[in-house]
């Protein structure tokens, strides 16, 4: 769970984004962003919607989708598309550093990791081709230890 100050900063940034773009702050959006900030990991719209429906059955799937898109546009969420066909969102807080992902294709486990050597290599490649790197992602797909033990096959 993000620190309270991190959550406060995120809420402030979110409300500033809404104001700049002439969007309304609504109770439903505030509930959605509150839950999103509480959850650690990579959530799909459906997963977040399911969590919210337990105590807020009136919040629709489209509202969750639009709110996550707003969070992404505001720079508070990063859209990730792993090979499972879902768009997942992860919180980008002030303390977040760049990281990459290892994804189990059998169970969907996502592990975040940082490797400075990989980062340097990617920068060297961009430099070699005279690119100014703006962003990048590095993902490894495989089968995790638990799925290997269970001999679980990719979905």
Task: Note the topology.
Blueprint lengths: L3 H17 L6 H12 L4 E2 H9 L7 H13 L3 E5 L5 E5 L8 E5 L5 E4 L2 H13 L10 E4 L2 H5 L6
Parallel strand pairs: 4-6
Antiparallel strand pairs: 1-3, 2-3, 4-5
Helix pairs in contact: 2-3, 2-4, 3-4
Explain this structure to me?
By secondary structure, the protein is of the alpha+beta class. It has two domains: about 90 residues, Winged helix-like DNA-binding domain superfamily/Winged helix DNA-binding domain (Arc Repressor Mutant, subunit A, Orthogonal Bundle); about 50 residues, 2-Layer Sandwich (Dna Ligase, domain 1), CATH 3.30.1490. About 45% of the residues lie in helices and about 15% in strands. It is built from six helices and six strands. Strands 1-3-2 form a three-stranded antiparallel sheet. It has a three-stranded mixed sheet with strand order 5-4-6, with no helix packed on it. Strand 2 and strand 3 form a beta hairpin. The longest helix is centred in the N-terminal third of the chain and has 17 residues. The model has no long low-confidence stretch (mean pLDDT about 90).
């Amino acid at each position: 769970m993000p620190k309270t100050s991190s959550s406060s900063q995120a809420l402030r940034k979110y409300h500033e984004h809404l104001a700049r773009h002439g969007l309304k702050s609504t109770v439903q959006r505030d509930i959605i962003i509150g839950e999103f900030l509480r959850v650690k990991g990579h959530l799909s719209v459906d997963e977040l919607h399911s969590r919210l429906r337990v105590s807020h059955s009136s919040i629709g799937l489209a509202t969750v989708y639009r709110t996550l898109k707003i969070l992404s546009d505001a720079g508070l969420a990063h859209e990730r598309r792993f090979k499972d066909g879902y768009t997942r969102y992860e919180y980008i807080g002030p303390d977040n550093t760049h990281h990459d992902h290892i994804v189990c294709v059998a169970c969907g486990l996502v592990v975040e990791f940082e490797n400075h050597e990989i980062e340097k290599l990617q920068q060297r490649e961009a430099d070699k081709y005279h690119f100014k790197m703006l962003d990048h992602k590095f993902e490894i797909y495989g089968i995790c230890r638990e799925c290997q033990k269970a001999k679980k096959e990719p979905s």
